[in-house]
Specification:
There is one protein chain. The protein contains 26 helices and 34 strands. With 911 residues, the protein is an alpha+beta fold. It has a 9-stranded antiparallel sheet. The longest helix has 22 residues. It starts with 8 loop residues before the first helix and ends in an 8-residue tail after the last helix.
Length: 911
């Protein structure tokens, strides 16, 4: 396998990390931003993780399974941690972690109530930059809690800006930058700007501590921190070795233990005289006895007190190193920062399309920064956790019901890409698949490792299920791992790195997962699939993960479409592997092709029926409710559920079947035995060939495609100014209402937040625009275009009289999606809605937040504010849009370009 050409310094580091095992990625932003309120730390009897371990307790209580911090840095096993603590001399507490509301406190679920930004990062974290906006007045903790508690789900959330605390610009901009002089020599620069009209004082406490691994009865040795000079803290760990933290200007060095303050928390004696909240007690509480005068412990901080003039700034420099530099703050320090920033610029000049505008470059780079800052060391030993709860199914009390009891095999201990390190500081399987497509643009190795991780025996269940997320590992996410795997492989193959071992290893594990889906989600063998909520939370009439109020079962159009898509992806992978082992993989490929045909047929069988998902009268797919008495009815909610069959489309180049004679024979037998089925479901088997003699597998015939696109491209239905809505706007005036058991169940178009508590009430699939599904729709349109070509056109928008081919529709949809983040003709970014501070203030307007989802009518950001995870796909969309423009200018035929982009929707690094 050939290397990527090291045409920039950062790429050389990536190559060295892969090929020579130089540990450039050993240190990174691997701390969580919220460890409290997680399932891992929950040892309650009722499973209320939010109540069991609160933000208020977090400063005093040691964590069992991980650490959190602001702008946190750690090694890749999170043994030694570094982060920032701040105090403005007004707050009631030392700010060591970000504050937010719990699920029950927020009127739309949990929500961080701080302003911080991931400004920059390289994939090896050789350079990183982070920004936090810290008010100079007392942080309004109580106001945020009480005001939000008094608001209904129909009202706006009460945000930090709404409190007025940033009025007159009385706040600090705190920038923290990291630069690696070598893999284990990390330079730290903290720059504090006073944006206010008067001088102000700020206490800055860069902190170093060990994750507590010694308090849990496992005889683990206790590491140590100690002061050796006036400027240096030395950290000694039995596994990690020895590191020194040098602190310029000889600040006051504080020491304590990372141990719970049991006396404060539970009225019990402390195990040690110095405890976790000592720095809070010392700095805020003015208690000189809170810290260890012997200058030793497992938690330490350098205490700086800065007088920052109005409009001015102050800089703090530190250095965490295993290399013991002779002059830690000599001229080399600033020179290293200058070099690393230049190398980051070089990297992004290499990967961002040349035709991108300045604003597109800004959005792209910050999207990638968010993706790279979003890594977190995730540690969870389910066997031990269940044992500690007394709920282990093999050794515990059989009457005790504990969350995730059937996942006792699981042992997680890896750096993983998180959806949002505050709101969702745990991995989610289908989110992760989308993350890899964005991450692969700068780090293929990490992207592939993430996909393989979920398929490993310590993650994937022995029955083949991929874990969903820690609240319920047995919940079901859409099966998109095979698609992500195939996409990464195709992109690498185009670069000359055909990683067949990666593809084969993934395929073996995916076969087990595919069998799990078939056996568990289609138990009657009818080729129609359930699956529960499938990542779309509240999109359905009922809670799709709960027992139906009507009894019976729900046959899901999205679940069945996902499985058709899964079949197509597995078929494509099998055909690639058949080029290397035709004896085994040809027959395997046929199995997926045959299953795909039966799934597509089950969605719309021959003849007139009322028990299938396709509604010929409406021209749309719906979920099917099958009642206990055998009757069936379609739930006529026009939502993404009915658009997802569009995504199950795959194009094969001319001559594909001819290369595999055994596969050809099996297809011929199937055609002879099932001529009516073959004629009914897809152009591939009906003998029709598309542009350049290509073949198509799609759940939608040409006629169905026209009808579905008519809805999707209607601005009164799905097409918003900023992408495809998750629910048709028609349900604003015409909600879907279903009565059963004396209760009303209804689905209204809700372009902003959810109005009910289904799945925690902290997300909404009943109207907003979601980036990942829009990305799949873009892929599907390009796929279909390369089959149908320029001659197939549709009206876009519906009713406009303007005809477009699917290539042009793709460009139009991509333009609408990227416009969420880009300044419009008035200089406004739709993502920030009517928030004038973000729209107009020069210190705010160019820092981008990548929200979880977006208002269905105006594009304003909603939900988790740092879910760069899959919203980072906007960088890929910018890339695709600008690459299409550039390659069109070079005269590349559109159908050939569409084929390339659909198969590998990330740009090829310049060679």
């Amino acid at each position: 396998m050939t290397s990527y050409e090291a045409d920039c310094t950062e790429q050389k580091r990536l190559n060295d990390a892969r090929e020579q095992r130089i540990p450039w990625k050993k240190w990174g932003p691997y701390l969580s931003e919220r460890q409290w309120g997680t399932v891992r730390e929950d040892y309650s009897t009722d499973g209320n993780a939010w109540a069991y371990f609160s933000h208020d307790q977090a400063r005093s209580r040691a964590y069992r399974w991980g650490e959190d911090g602001m702008a946190g840095l750690s090694d890749d096993q999170q043994r030694l941690c570094f982060g920032l603590a701040l105090w403005n001399e007004q707050d009631p507490i030392l700010k060591e972690r970000l504050f937010g509301l719990t699920n029950s406190e927020g009127n739309h679920g949990e929500d961080v109530k701080e302003y911080y930004f991931y400004v920059d990062s390289t994939p090896t974290h050789s350079y990183m930059k982070w920004l936090y906006k810290y008010p100079q007045a007392a942080f309004p903790y109580g106001d945020l809690v009480h005001t939000n508690a008094g608001r209904s789900r129909d009202e706006f959330e009460y945000e930090l800006l709404d409190t007025g605390i940033f009025d007159q610009d009385r706040y600090f901009d705190v920038f923290l930058e990291y630069a690696k002089a070598s893999p284990e020599d990390i330079l730290v620069r903290v720059t504090v700007h006073n944006r206010g009209p008067e001088a102000a004082r700020l206490h800055v406490l860069p902190s170093l501590w060990f994750r507590n691994t010694w308090s849990w009865g496992e005889d683990a040795p206790r590491p140590s921190l100690e002061q050796v000079t006036g400027e240096e803290i030395v950290a000694t760990h039995p596994e990690l070795g020895v590191y020194g933290l040098c602190c310029e200007q000889a600040p006051e060095l504080l020491f304590t233990e990372n141990e719970s303050n049991a006396r404060l928390l539970w009225g019990e004696p402390n195990r040690t005289p110095y405890v976790k909240d000592a720095f809070h007690e010392y700095v805020v509480g003015k208690n000189p006895n809170a810290v260890n005068p012997a200058k030793t412990g497992t938690k330490a901080a350098a205490h700086y007190t800065l007088e920052v003039p109005a409009g001015g700034s102050k800089v703090i420099r530190l250095r965490l190193s295993a290399d013991s530099p002779a002059e830690p703050f000599g001229p080399e320090f600033d020179a290293t920062f200058a070099s690393r920033i230049a190398e980051a610029d070089e990297l992004y000049a290499r990967v961002i399309p040349e035709r991108a505008t300045e604003d597109e470059r800004r959005v792209y780079r910050q999207a990638m920064a968010g993706m790279l800052w979003g890594k977190q060391f995730y540690f969870f030993d389910l066997d031990k956790w269940l044992e500690e709860h007394g709920g282990h199914p093999l050794t515990g009390d059989p009457t005790r019901h504990v969350r995730n009891a059937n996942w006792f095999h699981m042992l997680n201990g890896d750096v993983i890409s998180m959806p949002d390190k505050w709101e969702y500081p745990w991995y989610a399987a289908w989110d992760l698949a989308f993350h890899t497509l964005a991450l692969s643009h700068v780090d293929f190795d990490f992207a592939k490792e993430q996909l393989l991780l979920m398929l490993r025996t310590m993650y994937c269940h022995p029955n083949g299920q991929i874990p969903a997320y820690e609240w319920n590992f047995s919940d079901v996410n859409p099966p998109v791992h095979a698609w992500a795997t195939l996409t990464l492989f195709n992109t690498e193959r185009a670069l000359g790195r055909e990683d067949i071992p990666f593809l084969a290893k993934s395929f073996t594990a995916l076969m087990l997962n595919y069998s799990w889906w078939v056996n568990r989600k289609d138990p009657e063998g009818r080729n129609v699939f359930a699956g529960g909520f499938l990542g779309l939370d509240n999109i359905g009439v009922f809670d799709r993960s709960a027992q139906l109020p009507t009894g019976g079962s729900l046959e899901q159009a999205d679940g069945t479409a996902w499985m058709a898509f899964y079949c197509q992806n597995m078929l494509e992978i099998a055909l690639i592997l058949a080029e290397h082992d035709p004896t085994y993989y040809q027959e395997t490929a046929y199995r997926f092709l045959e299953h795909y045909v039966w799934i597509a047929y089950a969605m719309d069988r021959i003849g007139a029926h009322r028990d299938e998902m396709w509604d010929d009268e409406d021209g749309f797919y719906y979920d099917l409710l099958r009642l206990p008495d055998g009757q069936a009815m379609r739930l006529r909610v026009r939502s993404l559920v009915g658009l997802l069959p569009l995504c199950a489309s795959t194009v094969f180049e001319s001559g594909m079947a001819e290369r595999f004679p055994q596969l050809q024979q099996l297809i011929a037998v199937f055609k002879r035995r099932n001529p009516d089925v073959v004629a009914h479901i897809a152009p591939l088997t009906s003998g029709f060939r598309g542009h350049n003699d290509r073949a198509l597998l799609s759940t939608l015939s040409r006629e169905k495609l026209v009808r579905v696109l008519k809805y999707m491209l209607d601005e009164n239905e799905f097409l918003s100014p900023h992408g495809i809505r998750s629910l048709s706007r028609v349900h604003q005036q015409h909600p879907f209402v279903f009565h059963t058991g004396g209760q009303e169940h209804r689905v209204d178009y809700l372009p902003a937040e959810s109005n009910n508590g289904m799945f925690g009430g902290n997300s909404n699939w009943r109207g907003p625009v979601w980036m990942p599904v829009n990305f799949l729709i873009l892929r599907a349109l390009l796929n279909l275009y390369q089959f149908y070509g320029d001659d197939f056109t549709v009206e876009c928008p519906t009713g406009s009289g303007r005809q477009m081919n699917l290539y042009e529709v793709t460009l139009e949809l991509g333009r609408r999606l990227t416009s969420i983040f880009l300044r419009d003709e008035h200089g406004q970014r739709p993502v920030y809605g009517g928030t004038s501070k973000f729209q107009d203030d020069p210190h705010w307007r160019d820092y981008i937040l990548f929200y979880e989802y977006f208002h269905g009518d105006n594009g304003a950001g909603l939900g988790a504010s740092h879910q760069t995870g899959w919203t980072g796909l906007v960088a890929r969309i910018i890339d695709v849009m600008r690459r299409i423009n550039a390659e069109q200018a070079l005269g590349i035929p559109r159908t050939e370009l569409a084929s390339e982009v659909a198969r590998q929707p990330v740009a090829l690094p310049k060679r």
